[in-house]
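Action item from last meeting closed. Structure (574 res):
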């Protein structure tokens, strides 16, 4: 009996506390639900996009790449709000100016009969673009009729497209009619096909070089073809010839309507996703990396794979990867590009368009960049296979689509200093100095090396300091530095009156405010840390003409001397 009374007593006590237990359990469930809703999504360690980065509840991303035990960077998810990262405050005071002077004679007045210049370009789309532009100026120097340039169909890129399949040939001819007479094909001679004389000029050939070397042959043969024509014209030319260069490059060279329409579709689709977007030209293909001789931390697998590719070029010597990187000759990795952009103030919500070929090690290499910028797009993700089908078998046409999107982007970024980067840097300067970010690779080398030894704030501050002069601001590169195609200083004019009025008014941000948010002069030139640009103008041998079969002081045929392995430049070109 006593046992039954005790059991009944405990049962009644349990029933009395049951509501309290239920209430506490309910509160705990509600709290758990709230925590689940508010907390960031868990990291899927099998997802390559999040393989190296870890999100926390404090709006930061922890970069966990590195050796165990090393400090990590705590990267704010949101970008900087204290400045406009999408434009330059001083760009409105500069504009492209390439109109011909009244003293520049019309083509009809200076073109001689029986002088025909043919051009065979070399390399990828953007390397060929330099040749097409300079061909017009060369024809003007020689007072010759230019035949529409022949595109390179046999090189590394293996694209069978001709000029009229990429560029609007009729617009090209008509828009330059006052400057140079251009025809679509060489006329027949005495009813037979006219075979022009092939020859090659040195790189950076000046006006005098063309007059001494090419003109005598042209007068004798009447039709000559300059082969492998890329960067065969000097950087320093008469002002009117420089302006002609700009009229060709920025006004006469227009893509065909099908390419333009598809390119505009891609731009429109990026704009539908976000008001602003970044375009990144990412050169990280296996061939590119092998040629550079750099090392990216992939261990024996990387050394073996890239070493095997590097052996294709017999003229390449053994490389010193550390030396190459110290000298700023190694392309930034996708991760490094992402960290650079975040340090410059672009948040994780920014939309990014990536123009790239085959990336070495694929998604594993791209994972850190995609984690830093999840809104990641390419032409293949923006358009269907059916839409890209007319272009996908032709590397130059696909490159043209990327060119259009990169040109129209609010900010253009590159991890290299190849031809597309140079051409677009010059074009964006000419059309309003739209932000164009190129890494100061020499300085960034040590910053990335020591990134885990400092706070994110210190890292970002140093990044902004090192990138001064590499952001596409007006006057950041001295006139005459680098290739004219990337620094067309002769064709950029300044509205001095408007700038003077602006400087005389109240200063909202203080004297010297610039796009990086630091107090430096608005026309700051990074003289000590300018990009590694080629020295302008090696005019080459200025003496008499030299045709195929003639020899120079080395005893080598001129074509043999200059005909290095074609792919050496083409790998790095576009």
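Sequence:
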């Amino acid at each position: 009996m006593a046992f039954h009374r005790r059991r009944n007593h405990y049962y009644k006590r349990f029933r009395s506390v049951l509501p309290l237990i239920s209430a506490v359990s309910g509160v705990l469930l509600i709290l758990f639900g709230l925590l689940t809703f508010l907390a960031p999504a868990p990291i899927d360690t099998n997802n390559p996009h999040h393989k190296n980065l870890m999100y926390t509840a404090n709006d930061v991303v922890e970069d966990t790449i590195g050796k165990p035990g090393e400090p990590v960077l705590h990267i704010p998810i949101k970008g900087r709000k204290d400045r406009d990262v999408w434009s330059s405050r001083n760009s409105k005071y500069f504009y492209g100016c390439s109109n011909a002077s009244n003293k520049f004679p019309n083509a009809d007045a200076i073109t001689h009969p029986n002088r025909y210049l043919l051009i065979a370009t070399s390399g990828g789309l953007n390397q060929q673009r330099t040749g097409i532009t300079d061909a017009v100026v060369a024809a003007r120097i020689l007072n010759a009729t230019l035949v529409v340039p022949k595109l390179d169909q046999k090189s590394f890129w293996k694209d069978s497209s001709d000029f009229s399949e990429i560029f609007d040939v009729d617009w090209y001819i008509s828009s330059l009619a006052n400057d140079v007479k251009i025809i679509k094909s060489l006329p027949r001679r005495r009813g037979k096909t006219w075979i022009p004389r092939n020859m090659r000029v040195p790189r950076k050939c000046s006006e005098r070089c063309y007059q001494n070397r090419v003109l005598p042959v042209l007068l004798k043969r009447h039709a000559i073809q300059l082969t492998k024509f890329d960067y065969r014209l000097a950087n320093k030319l008469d002002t009117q010839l420089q302006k002609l260069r700009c009229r060709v490059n920025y006004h006469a060279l227009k893509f065909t309507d099908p390419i333009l329409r598809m390119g505009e579709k891609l731009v429109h689709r990026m704009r539908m996703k976000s008001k602003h977007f970044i375009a990144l030209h990412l050169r990280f293909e296996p061939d590119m990396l092998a040629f550079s001789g750099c090392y990216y931390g992939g261990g024996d697998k990387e050394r073996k794979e890239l070493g095997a590719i590097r052996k294709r070029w017999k003229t390449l010597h053994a490389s010193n990867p550390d030396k190459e990187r110290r000298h700023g000759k190694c392309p930034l990795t996708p991760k490094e590009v992402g960290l650079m952009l975040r340090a410059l103030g672009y948040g994780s919500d920014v939309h990014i368009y990536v123009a790239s070929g085959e990336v070495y090690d694929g998604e594993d290499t791209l994972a850190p960049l995609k984690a830093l910028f999840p809104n990641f797009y390419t032409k293949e993700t923006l358009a269907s296979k059916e839409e890209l089908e007319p272009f996908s078998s032709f590397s130059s046409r696909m490159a043209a689509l990327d060119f259009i999107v990169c040109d129209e982007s609010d900010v253009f970024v590159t991890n290299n200093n190849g031809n597309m980067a140079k051409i677009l840097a010059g074009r964006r300067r000419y059309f309003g100095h739209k932000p164009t970010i190129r890494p100061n690779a020499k300085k960034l080398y040590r910053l990335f090396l020591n990134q885990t030894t400092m706070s994110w704030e210190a890292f970002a501050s140093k990044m902004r300091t090192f990138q001064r002069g590499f952001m596409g601001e007006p006057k950041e590169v001295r006139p005459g530095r680098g290739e004219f195609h990337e620094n067309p200083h002769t064709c950029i004019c300044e509205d001095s009156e408007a700038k003077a009025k602006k400087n005389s008014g109240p200063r909202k941000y203080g004297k010297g405010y610039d796009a990086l948010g630091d107090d430096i002069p608005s026309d700051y030139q990074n003289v000590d840390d300018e990009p590694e640009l080629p020295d302008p103008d090696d005019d080459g041998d200025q003496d008499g003409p030299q045709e195929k079969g003639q020899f120079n002081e080395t005893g080598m045929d001129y074509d043999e001397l200059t005909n290095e392995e074609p792919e050496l430049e083409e790998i790095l070109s576009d």
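Note appended to the action item: Confidence is low (pLDDT under 50) at residues 37-58, 508-513, 519-524, 527-571.
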